[in-house]
Design brief:
The protein is mainly α.
Length: 71
């Protein structure tokens, strides 16, 4: 699950990089503007980002717990 979320976040980040630098939306170019596939991909990228936030907090909880054990 973590690997899939990371891949989705990378896809989203690269697409935003292309939008920012070249004003080119790769997802729209491949699937078409407003197509079902582009909407699904955007939703999956968003869910991957939410899972990334969960991973971040899980890592901090484990790290904090580890640090408290040493104290």
């Amino acid at each position: 699950m973590n690997i899939v979320a990371l891949i989705l976040m990378i896809v989203g980040a690269l697409n935003w990089l292309l939008v920012g630098i070249f004003n080119f939306n790769l997802v729209t170019a491949i699937f078409g503007a407003g197509s079902v596939m582009s909407v699904i991909l955007y939703i999956l990228v968003g869910l991957g980002g939410i899972w990334g936030i969960v991973m971040l907090f899980q890592r901090n909880v484990r790290h904090t717990s580890f640090m408290n054990d040493d104290a």
